[in-house]
Amino acid sequence: QNTIVVIPSLHPDEKLIRYVDDLINNNISKILVVDDGSGEEYSSFFEKIKKDNVTVLTHETNLGKGAALKTAFNHIQNSLKEYEIIITADSDGQHSVRDVIKVAKSVHQNKDSLVLGTRDFNQEHVPFKSKNGNKITTFVYKLLYGKYVPDTQTGLRGFNKKYLKNMNEIKGDRFEYEMNMLIYFSLNNFPLEFVEIETIYENNNTGSHFKPFRDSFKIYKVIFSNFFKFIASSLFTTGVDFLVYALLITTLENTGIGKVTYISISSYTARLVSSIVNYTINHKYVFSMTSSNVSKKQSLIKYAITCLLIISLSNLSTIFINKFLNINELIAKPISDVVLFVLSYFIQRNWVFANKKN
Length: 358
What we know:
Blueprint: E1 3-9, H1 14-25, E2 30-36, H2 43-49, E3 54-59, H3 65-79, E4 85-88, H4 97-109, E5 114-118, H5 128-145, E6 157-160, H6 164-169, H7 176-187, E7 192-196, H8 212-252, H9 259-286, H10 288-291, H11 296-324, H12 329-352
Parallel strand pairs: 1-2, 1-4, 2-3, 5-7
Antiparallel strand pairs: 4-6, 5-6
Helix pairs in contact: 1-2, 5-8, 7-8, 8-9, 11-12
């Protein structure tokens, strides 16, 4: 009851008709199918599924799975507000009606959670590329976002209607949208629930519209996007630090003040300016999924503490590497700073800009 199933569809066949009929026969309240630009030759399939409790929305051209889902979510938010539970399912036969119901029940019991129907990729019939691709993605996702998600590519998901606004604001128009959804929920500390479902691959999954190279590139681009933006932010602010330092050195060296004094003034001023620039970029762009929900005052204080910690650890570790490992200090410092760079990313992700409210 009060459940609506959203099915994005591109170039369907008879399986879509059977699937919709099965959902209706199992008392699903409402079904919302989005024709994502399939074209005139596929219109008969969509006409056959139109019933009192089945609505078909149509894109004139193919906009992508993410765009299709957001079209459906926007329609629910504006016109179907009475439905509490939203389930997304694929139209290619991968999600059984029994599993749709399992996910819906879990959403009913876990209203604050994004519920994922997760497959067991260790089964013998799972295609090699799917089995190993998911293992790699799961490992990388856990490393970068601190959450274990056994099936990052599942299209069977469920959530309470209170998250509809969030879903429409998440970026992405194609398969990368679903990864952005996971990242958004993980970074904002919304709970994730996992429901084990059947692992169905009909005809080696030939019905899927997932394009391995193009869509995998987009998915990994999304997964690594925060870390790459963090690298770019750090490189840019390193340049700012050097330019401010060089400008001050050039300005102060002929003023008559002592060398130690003007070098210290230049160093600390350059670090202060570059830190402010780095904080601003990280707040607005790198960790934008969470920073808007975090007190700016608190994050700024935490950022300042992080900077002091990293500077102190940099000095100590450089001395340690130089003295005890007998490595030249000009080599020791870059080695130390690479490790601390990664540490800084995790501290900022998990503490400085983390949304702990949820």
